[in-house]
Design goal:
With about 325 residues, the chain is α+β, with helices and mostly antiparallel strands. The protein is built from eight helices and 14 strands. Bound molecules: ligand 2P0. Keywords: ATP-binding, Lipid biosynthesis, Lipid metabolism, Lyase, Nucleotide-binding.
């Protein structure tokens, strides 16, 4: 953290990350400890820029893409600021101004970039100088996946067993990767990932099997990447994500984020693979499909999919940087 932003105010940028091995389900709701470790790629697009100003106001305020927020969105940010105030030993309320590059709450990791940027801006504005590991633990309290967006490139979040041991860290990426986003629907999802996870853990008969397999998936995927075997890694990424959706679909009541176009994209990804392109699908808590591919062939793969998926925009995202403070 830097002192050059003046006491009381700081601006930070963080990017979304897409999990290759997924986080789905908590061991501890309050501390946001996950049941499984996860692996992700921080992207170069889909950024959130957040300014935090501690003021003499009587309460916290939150503006998201220029719109003043109330209700649950504000309460969640306020609870997070309570943690920062506790660490810094201050009591002032804060004004939070946050802007997203991409759509909010559409399953495109806006809470990951959002809470990573908030953790960095709020801690700097409060005068804290946290290490990146401490920042990752702090961001985790806001939203689990946010702990991974503190770092750039390939990132692993080791589940750990308590607040101190659950944090993300960057890994060398032996294969340059890219992620295509096939945007099936940019609307807000009807059910939050937080609620969807809770219901899955509580009621899916497939959940424990997915948790067990996930630990194997992570180690096998890391070995495959180290061996330069994108085919083996991609197969594991796709299986891990579709397995996670199987746990949701088998929850009671079922959580089905898929739309008809979701299946069209999944089918196109299979056909692209049959045509020799290195592409594997992954999905998060929404109907959009992300496609893991090599950085080298990303443009070609996006063009191949685009021409076969009328009305579904396909964007190319490369590896992105760590969260950082900026001058306003
Ligand atoms: C992930 N997702 O690993 C998984 C895959 C969505 C599907 O992390 O409750 O917003 O705030 O910890 O981090 C989305 O969940 O959930 C997510 P909370 P979060 O990227």
């Amino acid at each position: 953290a830097s002192r050059s932003f003046g006491p009381g105010r700081a601006t930070a940028v963080a990017h979304a990350n897409i999990a290759l091995i997924k986080y789905w389900g908590k061991a501890d709701e309050t501390l946001v400890l996950p049941r499984t470790s996860s692996l992700s790629l921080t992207l170069d697009g889909l950024a959130t820029t957040t300014t935090v100003t501690f003021t003499g106001a009587r309460s916290d305020s939150l503006s998201l893409d220029g719109e003043e927020q109330s209700g649950e969105a504000l309460r969640r940010v306020s609870r997070f600021l309570d943690i920062v105030r506790g660490l810094a030993g201050i009591e002032q309320h804060a004004q939070v101004d946050s802007r997203n590059d991409g759509p909010t709450a559409a399953g495109l990791a806006s809470s990951a970039s959002g809470f990573a940027a908030l953790a960095l801006a709020a801690s700097a504005a409060a005068g804290l100088e946290l290490s990146s590991r401490e920042l990752s633990r702090l961001a985790r309290r806001g939203s689990g996946s946010a702990c991974r967006s503190i770092f750039g490139g390939l990132v692993v979040w080791r589940a750990g067993h308590d607040d101190l041991s659950s944090f993300a860290e960057p890994l060398d990426c032996p294969i340059p990767l890219a992620v295509l986003v096939a945007q099936v629907n940019a609307g807000r999802k009807a059910i939050s990932s937080r609620e969807a996870m809770r219901r899955t853990v509580a009621s899916s008969p497939l959940y424990e099997a997915w948790v067990q397999r996930s630990a194997v998936d992570l180690e096998d995927a890391l070995s495959a990447l180290r061996a330069g075997d994108l085919g083996a890694a991609g197969t594991i990424f796709e299986g891990n994500a579709l397995g996670m959706h199987a746990t949701m679909i088998s929850a009671r009541p079922a959580i089905v984020y898929w739309e008809p176009d979701t299946v069209r994209v999944l089918d196109a990804v299979h056909r692209a693979r049959d045509a020799g392109l290195p592409v594997w699908a992954t999905m998060d808590a929404g109907p959009n499909v992300k496609v893991v591919t090599s950085a080298e062939l990303a443009t070609e793969a996006a063009a191949w999919l685009s021409t076969r998926l009328e009305n579904i925009p396909v964007s190319v995202n490369c590896c992105g940087p760590a969260a950082r403070l900026i001058s306003e």
